[in-house]
Amino acid sequence: MKLVISGAGGFLGRELLGLLVDRDPVSSVIALDLKIDHITNFSENSKIELFTNEDFLLSDRDLSDYTLINLAYARSLDFEPIKSSCEWTFALFEKLQASGCEKYINISSQSVYDPRREFPAKESDLPFVSELYDLGKYYLENWIREFSEKYGALHLNLRPSSLVGPNFPQRITSRLVKKALEDGEISINLNGQVFSYTHVNDLARALLAAADLDRKAAWNKVYNFGSDERYTIEDIAQCIEQVFQKNAMSLKVNRLPAAANRLNSSIDATLFGEATGWTVGYSLYDIVEEEFYEELGKRDSQLV
Hints:
By secondary structure, this protein is an alpha/beta fold. The chain contains nine helices and eleven strands. α5 (172-183) crosses α9 (284-303). The termini are far apart.
């Protein structure tokens, strides 16, 4: 297997490169990003080549045996970064097509679904974009599908659940664990919001499973991919309590009644699992426990 990874310097991209270092079936990896500062530690691996986006567009090589994994997209709600992400995608696909690449895997988002859905989103559900970020993701899904159809290439549009993992503090799991360790106390609003997170390692493995699909009938589709586990803020708090109890530490949890907000980020990833054989490795408890020890390690290192 040979891969081009666009957006390789991001959180998921770096995890994916880490898996590929020792993965024998992958013989060549071209890793791209706006800047390669975050991935220079992979430069000593003989099968991984690092390119800035600009340098890659100027390069000249045969990519007919390569599969693209496109992770590049701005984490922004503003117009200009989203526009730049789209423009890079256009340039990248034109370059790949001209260089013989005929397999494209694009990472979209579960956020293209109704954020107030009653049940886990299925691929057959109609999109319901609510932010510019989502609109850009859905637009690129359709552009890539039409581009692939025009040139007879194979494509996948993958909609992952929200990712979590070490050194990714955006999620409520990370924030609550940090707060619990700092104060010995957390407060949660019992508003019924449904969360569903997938560990970055699980998502990276899923991407490799997708790239390894050999049945043509499994391509040219949209798939949800990620954990089927779903939970409320109360469930997350209970996991944190369990980890604290396991480590003989006290924690006070203030449970505050709140109006239901009906938010739901869960997905149904059955079709992806059936197509690839991929399964999730990290449960919510595993995610919380890892966050706990990661944050505890940071605190201990600061005391040295």
